[in-house]
Amino acid sequence: MALLELNDIHSYYGNIHALMGVSLKVEQGEIVALIGANGAGKTTTLRSISGLLHPRRGTVLLEGKEIHHMSPNVVHKHGLGLVPEGRGIFPALTVTENLEMGAYILDDKKQIEENMENAFTLFPRLKERAQQKGGTLSGGEQQMLATARGLMSNPKILLMDEPSMGLAPVLVDQIFDIIRELNARGTTILLVEQNALMALSIAHRGYVLQTGQIVLTDTGQNLKANDMVRKAYLGA
Amino acid sequence: MRLPMGWRNLRQILLPIGQTVVFVTGAGAICSAVMLLLALVFRGSGADQALQATQGVGILTYTFNSLPQVLIDGMTIGFVYAAIALGYTMVYGVLQFINFAHSEIFALGAFCGVESLIALNKMGLLAQASTLAAFMYLGLALLVGMASAGGMAVLVERVAYRPLRNSPTLVALISAIGVSFALQDLIRLTESLTTGQFYRVIPTFGNFDERINLFRIGSKVVDIQVKSVVVIVAAVLMLVALNYVVGSTKVGKAIRAVAQDKNTAALMGINVNAMISLTFLVGGALGGAAGVMYALKFTRIDPFVGFMPGIKAFAAAVLGGIGNLTGALLGGMVLGMIESFAGAYLGTYTMGAFGAEYKDMVAFLILIVVIVFRPNGLLGEHVSQKA
Question: What ipTM, to 2 d.p.?
Answer without folding.
Answer: 0.91
